[in-house]
Amino acid sequence: MIQLTLTQTTPLIQEADGTVRITGSRVTLDTIIGAFQKGATAEQIQDSFPSLSLAQIYGAIAYYLDDESDVETYLRKRRAEAESIKHEIESQQDTAGFRARIRACRAQLVKS
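and the corresponding structure tokens:
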């Protein structure tokens, strides 16, 4: 009988700031699971991230499916942090002034 090794490692690493990435890449678990939740297959995800192997993508998806509750909690926290950062950045920018300058430039181009 052939003896198989039945242990598998998750192709994920958690960085000091809490971000979970695919091992050896800058691609986050958020990105992979977000694409998966939108209906993308592992092969379609790999088309977007050719540096990742199918084994890494399937491993990340398997981890999500095995620990869905914990991963969803992590993803919710990450979305909340991203929204907070977005609001902070937007509050520091003069978007009204920027839009007015763009409109003025556009009006000048139309006149030309």
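(Above: one complete record from the training split.) The longest strand covers residues 12-14.
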